[in-house]
């Protein structure tokens, strides 16, 4: 991975450990030329930069979908709340300015397209097949299930599905990503690898 992009990814706000970021990059690096990488849950762009680095090398493009108002677990009073991403004008979270700055400073705007909206909105009209899908949106059960429902069927045969924050033991973390991981296995995806909480699955052609 380009060292400048690695530094940019590590410096960006987010919740992905370095080894998981490297695994995300490695999986995305195998996307075919002209392929599409779709990320659900952008936050401030840490994982987006890993994906963009891979896309640039592979000759692919990244689309990242987020409403930028924060997931349930990012709101005030919750463990993963960051008051620095709250817009003082509205009192609401707004991670979009942080994302824009991070992508600009990383120099990856040429391979990343931002879609601002909720899964329930964007997934309803989306029709383009996806070479790699990375689900890392809200971790409430309803939101994780909505993300999977909206996007998993867009993964092309032979394509890749990655799910972040998968913990089989409730003591380690929330269970919603684990539940959609199990759902993916039931739907015929095959697990390829795991790094920390990141699971990589293949859609059998």
Question: How would you describe this structure to a colleague?
Answer:
This protein is α/β, with parallel strands linked by helices and 205 residues long. The protein has one domain: Rossmann fold (3-Layer(aba) Sandwich). 34% of the residues lie in helices and 21% in strands. It contains seven helices and seven strands, in the order ααβαβαβαβαβαββ. It has a seven-stranded mixed beta sheet with strand order 3-2-1-4-5-7-6, with helices on both faces. The two termini are 28 Å apart. 46% of the residues are buried. The model has no long low-confidence stretch (mean pLDDT 93).
Quick take:
This protein is α/β, with parallel strands linked by helices and 205 residues long. 34% of the residues lie in helices and 21% in strands.
For the terminal residues, how far apart are their CA atoms?
Answer: 28 Å
Domain tally: 1
CATH topology: Rossmann fold
Please estimate the helix content: 25-40%
* Strand element count: 7
What oligomeric state do these chains adopt?
single chain
Round the mean pLDDT to the nearest integer and report it: 93
Shape: globular
The number of distinct helices, counting runs of at least 4 residues, comes to 7
- Poorly predicted runs of 5 or more residues: none
What is the topology?
Elements: H1 3-11, H2 18-28, E1 36-40, H3 46-58, E2 61-66, H4 96-106, E3 112-116, H5 119-122, E4 130-135, H6 141-151, E5 155-163, H7 176-186, E6 189-195, E7 198-203
Parallel strand pairs: 1-2, 1-4, 2-3, 4-5
Antiparallel strand pairs: 5-7, 6-7
């Amino acid at each position: 991975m380009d060292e400048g992009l690695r530094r940019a990814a590590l410096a960006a706000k987010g919740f992905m450990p370095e080894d998981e970021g490297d695994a995300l990059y490695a999986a995305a690096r195998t996307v075919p030329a002209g392929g599409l990488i779709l990320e659900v849950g952008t936050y401030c762009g840490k994982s987006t930069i890993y994906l963009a680095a891979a896309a640039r090398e592979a000759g692919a493009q990244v689309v990242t979908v987020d409403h930028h108002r924060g997931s349930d677990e990012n709101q005030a009073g919750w463990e993963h709340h960051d008051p620095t991403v709250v817009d003082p004008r509205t009192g609401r979270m707004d991670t979009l300015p942080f994302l824009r700055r991070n992508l600009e400073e990383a120099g990856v705007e040429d391979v990343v397209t931002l879609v601002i909206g909720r899964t329930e909105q964007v997934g309803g009209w989306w029709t383009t097949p996806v070479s790699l899908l990375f689900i890392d949106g809200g971790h409430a059960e309803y939101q994780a299930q909505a993300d999977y429902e909206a996007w998993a069927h867009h993964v092309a045969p032979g394509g890749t599905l990655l799910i972040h924050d998968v913990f089989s033991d409730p003591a380690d973390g929330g269970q919603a990503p684990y539940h959609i991981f199990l759902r993916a296995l039931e739907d015929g995806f095959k697990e390829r690898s795991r790094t920390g909480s990141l699971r990589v699955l293949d859609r059998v052609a």
